[in-house]
Specification:
D-Maltodextrin-Binding Protein, domain 2, 10 strands, five-stranded mixed beta sheet, alpha/beta, 13 helices
Length: 330
């Protein structure tokens, strides 16, 4: 199993001959690395791109985006890998959180019926059923609310339970604890490898699925986030981080899935199954190589949150992201 503070050590060795010259101090970062959405952060470390920028970046694996955000606002990390929707929610609460690099432009979540529940063929069939999410108030919970409301149901029409995002989620689907669940990509692909007949109710991972659900093929899904205070005090470090992560995303996009998969931490690999490769293959085209906020994405995510979480949500979107620290910034 991967140790929380030793994620990078499980990846390929750092590029030889690239010592950490002129390091500007250690930068603490964290993300829920159980999701492939945050791979560019890990690969920026393992492939030596942070080192080339003269940066010493520590990476910590936390169990959820909620835990990551708690660490960021609590000051125990400088950079967070989380979901862009979090920056909108934090700004609505008056918190100083800004997305400064978009990691992926599509979500990696799937609403799927439990294999044994052949009575669930569409989202409308979930009324009065028990539905699993990774955690209460999580991005998967928000997506479930959104999908229910778009299909004529209310969140109160289902019984929501937290089932985690890995083996526990798969077990809950297999043993009938839930009638359906919003799963992350790798866990879903493992389940599908065991039960190919599983029924997908909604899939956010493709341009077609994204367009059907949100009206656009590209969103701001996962992102690097920091406080404006830290960014204003460390602009050169922020630019170094974005260059390193962009290089890592470009490397991932330009290499065969087998080669990328071979460099994954053991916790993201699926021995004896192609599930991990399938999850990775679905995600690779969505990694952003420039980190720029897609046009219209902030408004789309705000509207998603207004429907799924809080109709009265009011926030100045200009405070939720910046392209200032990206390469070739206009």
């Amino acid at each position: 199993m991967i140790r929380r503070r030793d994620v990078p050590a499980l990846l390929a060795p750092l590029v030889a001959g690239c010592p950490n010259r002129n390091a500007r101090g250690s930068i603490r970062s964290a993300a829920p690395f159980a999701s492939v959405s945050y791979l560019p952060i890990l690969f920026a470390r393992s492939l030596g791109y942070f080192d080339q920028e003269g940066l010493a970046v520590e990476t910590e694996d936390l169990s959820s985006v909620t835990k990551v955000m708690e660490s960021l606002v609590g000051g125990s990390i400088e950079i967070a890998g989380g979901t862009y929707e979090q920056t909108i929610q934090m700004n609505a609460l008056g918190r100083d959180v800004t997305a400064f690099f978009v990691l992926s432009t599509r979500l990696s979540q799937i609403l799927v019926a439990a294999p044994a529940r052949r009575d669930v063929q569409r989202i409308g069939d979930l009324k009065t059923r028990t539905v699993g999410v990774t955690g209460f108030g999580s991005a998967t919970h928000n997506l479930l609310n959104f999908l229910l409301l778009k299909n004529g149901l209310k969140p109160s029409d289902v019984d929501v339970v937290a089932i985690g995002n890995g083996a526990s989620a798969i077990a809950a689907m297999e043993n009938g604890r839930v009638a359906a669940a919003v799963m992350i990509s790798t866990a879903f692909e493992v389940l599908r490898s065991m039960r190919p007949d599983v029924i997908v109710l909604a899939d956010t991972r493709t341009p077609e699925g994204s367009t059907e659900l949100f009206g656009v093929p590209r969103l701001a899904a996962s992102a690097l986030m920091a406080t404006n205070f830290w960014l204003s005090k460390h602009p050169s470090e922020a630019r170094g981080v974005t260059r390193a992560v962009a290089s890592a995303a470009r490397w991932i996009r330009e290499h065969p899935v087998e080669e990328v998969y071979a460099k994954l931490p053991e916790s993201l690999q699926t021995p004896g199954s192609d599930a991990g490769k399938r999850a990775l293959l679905m995600m690779m085209p969505a990694f952003s190589v420039d980190g720029r906020m897609p046009s219209g994405a902030p408004g789309t995510i705000r509207d998603f949150l207004r429907l799924a979480v809080d109709p009265s949500l009011n926030v100045d979107l200009a405070n939720t992201y910046t392209n200032e620290y990206l390469e070739a910034n206009p």
